[in-house]
Amino acid sequence: RDGLREGCRGAWGTEGVMARNTLLGAEVMLAVVLIVSAGTAVETLVRLLNTDPGYQPSGAMAVELSTSERYRSEVSFLRAMAEEISTIPGMRASAITNRLPLGDDHSTRPVNLGAKAEPSRQEMVEVRRVSPGFFDAMGMRLMRGRLLSETDTPETARVALVNERFVRRFLGTAEPIGRQLFIQEGQSPAPAVIVGVVNDLRNASLAADPQPEVYLSVFVHPS
User: For the CA atoms of 52, 54, 58, 63, what is the dihedral angle to 10 degrees?
Assistant: First the structure.
């Protein structure tokens, strides 16, 4: 019995200690991996939280409305709705848009610059329809030119705004104000004149770079 006890103690003292040390080493390695992973996740989160989305989300509220095709294309209905929303107590600014930032819904259209529509030179660009108060409500910045206005109507010249990324990608150092672009909607491309440039929005995600965008008045181009 004494010999057996001594033999067992010896086995545990050698192989058992080795096994225990191996397990302890594995636990330490796993703990280090978890700590490193957690640190990376925290670093990524901090970086995203410090990323400028291009708008001011503080104090903002978005309400999504689902309407029939008849109302989506009815300018008088859209104007009446915008005016009614603006009368809500405590409302500083309000606007209508067909696309919100950081959403899954996108509306890209073939667009090209020039004196005439050239299908061979078209680029796919995000086209957003907004009411003139959109940029104020979102806390966006006008970089050049002017914003959309209530005086922009279907009877006046067709105008558009573009973002900074649009200018950098398609115009470089050329002056954007006054340039004509064509937006392919339906059977024929619709011309519009660039009257202003606004800052970039991050639309896909905070981690993704902003993409070229065109802004049209929802009161002139409702759908």
Answer: -140
